[in-house]
Design goal:
Elements lengths: L4 H13 L11 H11 L3 E4 L8 H9 L6 E6 L4 H9 L4 E4 L4 H12 L4 E2 L3 H13 L13 H11 L4 H8 L3 H15 L4 H10 L9
Parallel strand pairs: 1-2, 2-3, 3-4
Helix pairs in contact: 2-3, 4-6, 6-10, 7-9, 7-10, 8-9
Length: 211
């Protein structure tokens, strides 16, 4: 969703030509939320600058929907505050509008698989912020128990590996890895892979040495 018709049409055309089904487009935030509830897209591409409500608020509402929508933010802004607000709202990824067509299409495909996707340079920013937030004390008295395999998958997710890479590393099928991630999300009451990465970093799993 984007408030500039020509840009919006160009994005939709690129997606369709790449074989993606474009179920709906919208020029403002409220329309986007309403249309998404009916069309139930797997991935929503959201601009931060919309004429009514912000793209961050749209992201928050789409992620909170039932079922939740994966959001890939496509914005002209690479400002730290904009990136972090979008990610905290639940965005699966954040890509600058200056990205090449191939990079954009790859990001859409990866977001659809649940991967966290960021324009180069932004991933380090997001991980750094998560580590800063993780410095705050956290009670683990009622922390849910994960199986050894779920913890192993979670550790690799925290290190930034894709599902395909995790499957290859652990000699598992792609579907099995997805199932482990979905089970872990359910146990931890999290909504998406971005929140899962934050949880893992809070636990220090991204810094654990592999045994």
């Amino acid at each position: 969703m984007d408030d500039h018709p020509m840009w919006r049409d160009a994005v939709a055309r690129d997606l369709a030509e790449a074989g993606h089904e474009v179920v709906a487009t919208a020029g403002d935030g409220r329309t986007a939320v309403r249309v998404a509830a009916a069309a139930r897209p797997q991935v929503a591409i959201v601009d931060l600058q919309l004429p009514d409500i912000s793209g961050v608020e749209v992201t928050r509402q789409l992620v909170a929907a039932d079922p939740p929508v994966r959001v890939l933010v496509l914005s002209a802004s690479g400002e730290q505050q904009d990136v972090l607000e979008a990610v905290k709202a639940g965005a699966t990824g954040y890509l600058l509008k200056s990205a090449a067509r191939e990079e954009f299409l790859d990001a859409v495909a990866r977001a659809g698989q649940g991967d966290a996707v960021f324009t180069p340079g932004l991933a380090g920013l997001v991980l750094g912020e998560y580590r800063r937030l993780a410095a705050a004390p956290r009670r683990d008295d009622d922390a849910p128990r994960l199986t050894e395999r779920e913890t192993e998958v979670l550790r690799l997710v925290a290190k930034g590996l894709t599902y395909k890479q995790i499957a290859q590393r652990l000699v598992l099928s792609h579907r099995t890895v997805q199932n482990h991630v979905q089970n872990t999300l359910g146990k931890l009451q999290l909504h998406n892979r971005v929140e899962l990465v934050r949880y893992a970093i809070e636990k220090g799993l991204d810094r654990d040495d592999e045994r």
